[in-house]
Structure formats: structure tokens, C-alpha cells
């Protein structure tokens, strides 16, 4: 019962603007967290992506048998795919993350002919769409005039086609705005960044509404488009955090459009000093899926209780309906295609 109450409290906190986005890797996890994968004093030690830090903090606060640390998804994946990683000797019991990262770890270990190190992932705990955030005037011009969203033009394809172009030569633009800067968190490290890369690429190929695309569709046009996004940058200090962090800190002197999770964008923008100057635009046909996966040989508490999911809905997440219709859970992008996109992104950067 204690753990159930902890889960409810954790999930209710997720949508509440309490996320400490500055804690990424190597820092104190907070709320009973630790760093270095050394394990904790409790019975259950978790590694959590920053996007779900508040949930893990609440779990640890409510139940002193749970400890946690916060780490970017790509960093955790690198640890789990290291050839010398021994799951039964690990001080980490489970990973609270977003899909497709557990599948990517399984794929990478399979490619390297290494043994499986993760157990079966939980059912999807909750979902949230992906959004675009930007300065209101510029984002309105970019989406409404440059991209002509009313004509159902995929916005991310349009963003990439115009990345780096001078605003003065674009419909609704102002020469004083400089060049078009669009982006998202580093997909090699960030769970959110990888999802936005996937959505943006799907929009480039017109793979909307559950249809798909394949690695053999990658061509020079796609590489150039991806490179335009990769090269798009307001040239801010690397210590300024994610593109959304930079947008909140520097406003119009930073990005014109950034991709992030819906609930994160709403929570960060609402109440910020630039709330009236920023716009959050829904842009997603894909959903971010929160899951918990045990390290092989370890056990995790059950986080799939209906009450917890209802709390997530109240906090701004979507209750996944596909626990009763598994066909709806099929992602338009497989772990293998995400891996291919990461390799293409590496070439672009």
C-alpha cells in the first residue's frame, strides 16, 4: 500500500513544474538519489531519465527503500551496452525511461552478440504528445506563413528546409530576427531529443498517421535536410542546458522553434517570466511513452496501477488506451530505424 501511494504521488507530481532540469549526469539525484551507479542503501535502486525525475523523487521520498539517480537516456544506454556490464552484479535494479530506449539497448547488444541485460519492460505507464515551443511572433510566422500549416504541410519538414535562412527573405519575417534557428535536445543523449528526431524525420518522409518509412529511404535530400537542422544554432553557451532551457533563459535571442514533450513545455512555460511572449504549439502524431524496465535478475515494484494512470491524466498525460488494444501500441518507428536515424544524425553533425 505504501508503494502504491508513492506511485500515485510521484505520477501526480510529474506534470507540476517541479522538474529540476539542471540535474542531468554526475550530479546529486535529489530526493534520495545518488550518482555513479553504485547503488543505494534501499531495496530498490533506480536510474531515471531527467524527464521523469520528479516521479522518482516522489517515490524515494515516500518509500525509503527506494533510491535513485538521474541520467540522460543515452548515457544509461551506453552503460548497459558496455560489453563488461554484468546485470546480476549491478547496484541498479531498474530504469525509468521513455521508449524506444530499452529496445535500443536490446538491439545494440544483439548486434554486438552480447547477452541480454534488461528484463521485460512494463506496460506503458503514460503518454504525452510532442510539442513545438517558440517566441510567439516568430513561431506564428514560421508555422502559419512560411510553412502554411493550414495546408497540412508537415511543420518539421518545413522547419528543416528553412533552417539557417535569413528571416528577411521569408513570408512574415523581419530582417532583425537574423536567421531561422530550429532544434531539439541532443538525440544521442536525450530521450526527448530522440523522439523529436523521429517525428521530424517521419514528417520529412510524409510518414504520418501510423505509416512508416525505412532506412533505404535515406538519400542526399534527407541528409541535407537533417544537416540543416543540425547546423541550426543560436550559438549560446553549452552550459545553458537544453534548447527549451535556452529559450526560457534567452527568449528571442535564442531559438525560433524547439521540440519538446507537451507536459514539459507547458509546465516550463507556464509561469515563466516570458510566458506571454512564448507559444506552445501541438505538433505531434507520435506519443512519448513512459516505461519502467528491470535490470535482468532484479525486480521492480508494479507501477501500472490504474489509479496511478488516472493521476497522470490529471497531471496532463494521456491514459494509454492500447493496454486493451495492443495494435494501437505499434510505433511508426522501430528501434532499428531509430538506431539508423542516430547514425545519420551523427553524420550530419
Task: Give an overview in words.
- The protein contains 12 helices and 7 strands.
- The protein has helices spanning 2-14, 53-62, 73-81, 101-111, 136-146, 155-162, 191-204, 220-231, 243-250, 262-269, 306-315, 335-348; strands at residues 44-48, 66-70, 94-98, 126-135, 182-183, 257-261, 278-294.
- It is an alpha/beta fold and 349 residues long.
Topology at a glance:
Layout: H1 2-14, E1 44-48, H2 53-62, E2 66-70, H3 73-81, E3 94-98, H4 101-111, E4 126-135, H5 136-146, H6 155-162, E5 182-183, H7 191-204, H8 220-231, H9 243-250, E6 257-261, H10 262-269, E7 278-294, H11 306-315, H12 335-348
Parallel strand pairs: 1-2, 1-3, 5-6
Antiparallel strand pairs: 3-7, 4-6, 4-7
Brief overview:
With 349 residues, this protein is an alpha/beta fold. The chain has helices spanning 2-14, 53-62, 73-81, 101-111, 136-146, 155-162, 191-204, 220-231, 243-250, 262-269, 306-315, 335-348, and strands at residues 44-48, 66-70, 94-98, 126-135, 182-183, 257-261, 278-294.
List keywords for this structure.
349 residues; alpha/beta; 7-stranded mixed sheet; 7 strands; disordered N terminus
Amino acid at each position: 500500500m505504501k508503494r502504491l501511494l508513492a506511485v500515485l504521488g510521484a505520477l501526480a507530481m510529474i506534470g507540476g513544474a517541479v522538474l529540476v532540469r539542471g540535474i542531468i549526469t554526475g550530479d546529486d539525484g535529489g530526493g534520495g538519489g545518488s550518482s555513479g551507479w553504485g547503488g543505494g542503501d534501499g531495496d530498490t535502486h533506480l536510474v531515471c531519465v531527467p524527464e521523469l525525475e520528479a516521479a522518482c523523487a516522489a517515490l524515494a521520498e515516500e518509500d525509503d527503500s527506494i533510491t535513485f539517480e538521474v541520467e540522460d537516456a543515452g548515457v544509461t544506454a551506453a552503460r548497459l551496452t558496455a560489453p563488461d556490464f554484468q546485470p546480476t552484479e549491478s547496484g541498479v535494479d531498474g530504469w525509468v525511461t521513455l521508449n524506444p530506449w530499452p529496445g535500443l539497448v536490446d538491439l545494440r547488444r544483439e548486434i554486438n552478440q552480447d547477452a541480454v541485460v534488461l528484463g521485460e519492460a512494463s506496460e506503458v505507464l503514460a503518454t504525452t504528445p510532442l510539442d513545438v515551443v517558440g517566441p510567439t511572433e516568430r513561431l506564428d510566422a514560421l508555422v502559419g506563413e512560411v510553412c502554411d500549416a493550414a495546408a497540412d504541410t508537415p511543420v518539421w519538414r518545413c522547419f528543416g528546409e528553412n533552417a539557417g535562412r535569413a528571416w528577411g527573405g521569408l513570408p512574415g519575417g523581419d530582417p532583425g530576427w537574423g536567421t531561422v534557428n530550429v532544434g531539439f535536445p541532443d538525440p544521442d543523449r536525450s530521450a526527448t531529443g530522440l523522439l523529436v528526431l523521429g517525428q521530424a524525420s517521419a514528417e520529412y518522409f510524409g510518414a504520418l498517421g501510423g505509416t512508416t518509412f525505412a532506412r533505404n529511404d535515406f538519400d542526399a535530400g534527407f541528409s541535407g535536410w537533417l544537416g540543416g537542422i543540425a547546423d541550426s544554432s543560436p550559438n549560446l553557451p553549452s552550459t545553458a542546458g537544453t534548447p527549451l532551457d535556452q529559450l526560457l533563459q534567452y527568449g528571442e535571442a535564442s531559438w525560433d522553434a524547439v521540440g519538446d514533450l507537451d507536459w514539459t513545455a507547458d509546465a516550463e512555460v507556464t509561469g515563466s517570466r516570458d510566458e506571454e511572449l512564448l507559444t506552445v504549439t501541438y505538433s505531434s502524431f507520435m506519443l512519448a511513452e513512459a516505461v519502467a524496465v528491470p535490470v535482468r535478475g532484479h525486480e521492480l515494484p508494479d507501477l501500472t496501477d490504474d489509479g496511478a494512470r488516472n493521476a497522470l491524466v490529471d497531471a496532463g498525460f494521456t491514459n494509454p488506451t492500447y493496454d486493451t488494444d495492443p495494435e494501437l501500441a505499434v510505433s511508426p518507428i522501430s528501434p532499428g530505424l531509430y538506431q539508423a536515424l542516430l547514425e545519420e544524425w551523427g553524420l550530419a553533425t
